[in-house]
C-alpha cells in the first residue's frame, strides 16, 4: 500500500493521498470532473439521508427540474446571469442538429424553477411552496480539487416561496446546516452572513457557515439565500393575497454539496489517512479475528461471528476474516479508510473472554470483557463523535486571532494562518484591498458579533464590530 | 377541479390528465423535458428505496460517474456509438470558450465507466466489481410523453464486472426487476430476452421484462444486458486470473428509469385518476373527519387524532382537517391522487364507535369498529396490493392471443390489440416486415417458452416455439 504524504510535508498532497488511499474518489478522464467511488459515495448517502430527513421534518418536499436551462432564462435576472454565465457548459447540438437556442447545463436552478413557479403559484393558498432537489450541477472551473471544487458536483438545492418574507426560512435552513455540521460532521462552524461582495448573484442576503480546515484555511460549508423578490420580479411571479391584492412572491434558495466530504476529510483526517465521525461513517466497526494455523482460524472466525450476534440494529459493522491478508495489513487498510473502531480478537482474548477495542481517532487500545461489549462500543462511538468535535473546536480556537494592526495581520495570515477577527469599515474598497494585498477575504459577519467600537484594519474609519477574515478554499 | 378524460374517449389524453390532476409532473419549458413534481417524485423515492435495498442485498454498491463523456470515448465501441450518438446532446462550449473536444451528455455510461474500470481492475482479486449509479441521462427524443419518453430522465444504471461470465449476473438482476415489478408495482410482467434487432447497442444479449398497459400496448419496464467482453475489448480492460493469465473482463449493464412511474399509472389508474399499489403509495391512508358547525369540528378533529394514535409505525397517513374545503371536495382530491384507503369519520360514526374505510381501487365502503381498525387497514392494504396485481394479470391474460394466421394477426393487433404469441422463424427480414406492415415488434422471447413446432407467421418457415409480439411504447 502506498504511503500517505504527511500534512507537515505537503498539505495538498496529503489531502489527495487520503482520498486516493481510502478510495473515496478518482480523477475522471473529463477535464475538471471526478468519479465518486463507492467508499466516497457511501458517505454522501449518509449525508443525504440525514439532511433529507431534516428538510422533510421542516415541511420540505423533493422534486426534480430539468438539467438544461434555455439561454434566455439565464438572462432574465441581471446579477444572476453576470455571476453564472461565464462558468457555464453550453449545449449547442442535440439529436444531430444545431439547436435554435443554446441550452445551459444548470449551474444552479433558480431560473428554471421560478419559470415553473409562475404557473404553480396564483394565490396565497398555494404558499408556502417548499421544494428541494438532489441533483448534479456544472460550473466550469479552471483550478479543480477533488470534492472541494470540481466542474460537475452533486448537491441539494432548496428553492422555496415562503408565505411571507423569506428571512425566517433562510435563517431556519442555515440553522439546519449548522446543526448538521456540528452534530453529525463534528465540524464546528461560524454562522453568519456574507458581505455584499461575497453574496450569491441575485440574492438580497446570503447566510453562510464557515469552518476551519487543518491548514487554517476557511471553507464555506453551506449557504442559504434570502432572494427577496428578485426572481419573482424577473419571472413575473405574483400571487393574490388574502385581501385580493397582487403581490410579488418572496424567495429563498440554499444548498450544500459533495464539497462537504472534502470538509470532513480536512477537518478530522490525519497522517494515517481518513478519520470519520461515527455518525457519518458508512462502516462504524470492523472486527478482525487474529489466528495462526487452520485450526485457530476456524475457531476465531466462529468466535467473531458469535461475538457480533445482535449487533446489526445498533451499529454497522463488518468481520474482516479474509484469509489472504495478514492482520497488520488489515489494521492499516481499515485505518486508512477511517473506520472509527477496530475490534481485535485473538486466541488469548478468547481465553480471557475479552476483546481489544482500538480507537481510530486516538489510537488508544481498550481491553473490554466480551459481556457488554456492544454497550462499550456504543459509548465509545459517542465519545469519538464528541471528542472529534472538541478537538476540531480547540484547533479552530487556537488559530483564531483578534488583530488590530494590519502589519501583524499580513504576517500572521501567512504563518500560522487562521481566522482573524478584525474591524472593517464596511466599504468595498477596503474589502478589495484586503484580498489583493493578503489573499484573505471576509468570510462572514458572524451572528454572535458583539458591538464593539473600533477602527477599520485598512483605512482606520470607524467600525462597530468585528468580522471574520481568512484565506479560503 | 378539471375533469379527467375517460380512457374510452381518448386514452392518451386520459394519461396526461391523470398526471396533471394528481400533480405528478408538468411540462418543462425545455424541449422534451419534464418537471417531476413532489407528488411524482415521492413515488420515485419509494421506488429508489426498494430497488436500492435489493441491489445492496446482492452485493452492489453505489458510485457516481461524470455527466460528460468525451466524443472519442463514445466512438470506441462501434455498435454502441452507432446506437447512441444520433440521439445525444453535445456540449461544445465551456467557461466561455469552444472546447477542443466536444462532450456528450451521457445517454448511458458504459464508456466512461469502462474507461475507469481499466484503472481499477488489474487482478482477479479486484473482481467482482458490482457498481450501480442513480443519475440523470439525456437522449434527444422527437416524440416525447411524460414519464414514458422524455429527453432527460432519471434512472439507475448498474455496471458490473462479474468474476466469471456475465450471464448469471445479468439474469440475477432481471429477476430483481421481475420481483420488484410484480410484488411492489403489482404489475405482471413477461421476463425473457430480446431479439438481435431489439437488443442493446453493444450487448451480447439483452434481457427484458414486458408489461401490458391498459391500451393493450407493451411497455418495456427494465432491461439487463450481458455485454460479454465487448466493452472490455473496446477499453482494453484485462485482469490477471488465478493462473497468471491475462483475460478480458466480462461485463453487464442494467437499468430502470422514471418510466416505471408511467407504467404504474397506465397499469392501475382509472377514470377517476391515479390508483397506486399500497407498497409504493407515498401516502397510504387519508383520514377525513366530517363535521357540521364549529363545535362538531373540534370534536371530530380531536377524534381523528385519537383514532390515529400509534399508526405512525405501521402505515403512512394524513389527517385532512382543512377547514376551507368540503368533505366531497377532499374525497375527490385524494381519489385523484391515488391514496389507497380513505377513512371517513363523522358524528354518527363517533356515536357508534366506528369508522368507514373506502377502497380507492374498487370504491367499496367498509364500516369497521374503531377497536382494531389499524389491523383492518393493514389487511386491507395487503388485499388491495394483491387484487391490483390479480386484476392487471387478468386484464393481460384476457388480451393475450395465440395466433397462427397473419391476416387474423393484422386485424387483432388493431382491435382489440394485446400480446400475441406467434411463431417466428428467427430472421431479421420477417421481424422487419412485421414491424413495417403492422407496427408490432417482437417484445421478447419468453423464458417460459415451450418447445412447439410451428410455422413462421410471416414466411411459413419452421419455428420451434412462440415469441411475444405487440405494439409497444
Strand content of chain A: 25-35%
- Report the CATH architecture of the largest domain in chain A: 2-Layer Sandwich
- Side by side, the strands of the main sheet of chain A go 3-7-8-14-11-10-9-22-25-21-20
CATH class of the largest domain in chain A: Alpha Beta
Structural class of chain A: alpha+beta
Q: Any low-confidence stretches of chain A, pLDDT <50, length ≥5?
A: none
Number of E-state strands of chain A: 25
Multimer state? homodimer
Care to describe what's here?
The structure is a homodimer of 473-residue chains. In chain A, the strands form six sheets. In chain A, strands 3-7-8-14-11-10-9-22-25-21-20 form an eleven-stranded mixed beta sheet. The first copy, chain A, has a five-stranded mixed beta sheet with strand order 16-15-17-18-19, sandwiched between helices. In chain A, α2 (38-57) packs across α6 (167-184). Chain A is built from 14 helices and 25 strands. Chain A has 473 residues and is of the alpha+beta class. In chain A, 34% of the residues lie in helices and 27% in strands. Chain A has three domains: 11-268, BirA Bifunctional Protein, domain 2; 283-380, Anticodon-binding domain (Rossmann fold, 3-Layer(aba) Sandwich), CATH 3.40.50; 400-470, 2-Layer Sandwich (Translation Initiation Factor IF3), CATH 3.30.110. Chains A and B meet through β2, α2, β3, β4 and β5 of A and β2, α2, β3, β4 and β5 of B. β5 (89-94) of chain A pairs antiparallel with β5 (89-94) of chain B.
